[in-house]
Please model this.
Amino acid sequence: MELGSWSIIQAPSLLALIPLVVYIVLVFRGKNNVSGIIVGIFLAVLMLGQNLKAVSVGLAASLGSSTALIGMIIMAGAGLDVLMSEAGVSRTMVYWIVKRIGVNDVFGHSGPAAALLKQFGLSAENIVAQAKAMLNQ
Model:
């Protein structure tokens, strides 16, 4: 990506890390991850001197690597967690997994993994049977 005519930086330098540093500071100060991403992208636009379309094309190209895509999902993931918690989706999912599939919620056992999975109702056969029973209701 070329630097725009009105970019703040004139050549590739460590100053390009400023959006990342600002994102990290915002997150550690308790701000929402999505807000940090938006502020970081805005700073990158200002520093590169590009319009938003050029930056979005560069962002899309960089997300072509699976590592960058996973990093972006992780950074935005905390916002999804808050949304799911506030909406009660997390609680519903946990209830559905524990009660409907038949997970035994007693802990503190040890032994071979296959035996413990079967004991707690997490064997493939039990999960398939529970899912079929739920679909037939």
Observations:
- The chain has seven helices and no strands.
- The mean pLDDT is 75.
- Residues 48 and 134 are 54 Å apart (CA to CA).
